[in-house]
């Protein structure tokens, strides 16, 4: 039985809003676009979109059930994610901009961006929400594949906007002090993205 595409319309809306709003991935992409340019950020962009879609697929195949059975694993992941994001914020805040940066650091690779999804709190929340709330129940494996493809297609241009924003900022802001301020701002946003995670911990 072929899937009803109308059933996926709410998913498209949710995936777009979740993908285009600020979060760790978009903050890092904006910083990468500014510090490395759009072309060198493409592997990072692809790693985010494909890695997130693969994550949804794996959660849909049963990993989410494992966290329900052993909630301590999710707790460990949350704290590890928070520490890693704080380290990334420090790296962004202390990175050099412009031509100096290219000699001392490299943009995030495809595999690094793919792996980052597994320590990204926002990615976890969205992926679990998609599987639990937007998955049609019939013909599960086919629908799971369609959901992964939809999320990848919607996510790719959404996150690309953030990398493009950073690249435009690089061309428009030439002064090192302003570029450093931009990196500081991105670092602060990355730390601020931990607020929902800390709020969740406070309620437990």
UniProtKB/TrEMBL annotation:
Taxonomic lineage from the root: Bacteria, Pseudomonadati, Pseudomonadota, Alphaproteobacteria, Acetobacterales
GO molecular function, one term: amino acid transmembrane transporter activity
GO biological process: cysteine export across plasma membrane
Membrane topology according to the record: Multi-pass membrane protein
Annotated compartments: Cell membrane
One Gene Ontology CC term in the entry: plasma membrane
Domain of life: Bacteria
Major location category of this protein: membrane
Protein name: Membrane protein
Organism of derivation: Gluconobacter wancherniae NBRC 103581
Keywords carried by this UniProt record: Cell membrane, Membrane, Transmembrane, Transmembrane helix
């Amino acid at each position: 039985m072929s899937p009803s595409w109308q059933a996926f319309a709410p998913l498209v809306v949710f995936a777009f809003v979740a993908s285009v709003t600020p979060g760790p991935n978009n903050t890092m992409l904006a910083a990468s676009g500014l510090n490395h340019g759009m072309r060198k950020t493409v592997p990072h962009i692809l790693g985010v979109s494909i890695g997130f879609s693969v994550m949804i697929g794996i959660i849909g195949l049963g990993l989410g059930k494992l966290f329900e059975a052993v909630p301590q694993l999710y707790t460990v992941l949350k704290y590890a994610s928070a520490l890693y994001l704080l380290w990334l914020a420090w790296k962004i805040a202390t990175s050099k901009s412009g031509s100096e940066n290219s000699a001392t650091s490299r943009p995030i690779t495809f595999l690094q961006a793919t792996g980052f999804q597994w320590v990204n709190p926002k990615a976890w929340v969205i992926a679990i929400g998609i599987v639990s709330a937007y998955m049609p129940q019939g013909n599960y494996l086919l629908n799971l594949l369609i959901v992964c493809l939809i999320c990848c297609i919607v996510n790719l241009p959404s996150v690309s906007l953030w990398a493009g924003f950073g690249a435009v900022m690089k061309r428009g802001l030439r002064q090192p002090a302003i570029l450093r301020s931009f990196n500081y701002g991105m670092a602060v946003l990355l730390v601020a993205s931990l607020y929902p995670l800390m709020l969740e911990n406070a309620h437990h």
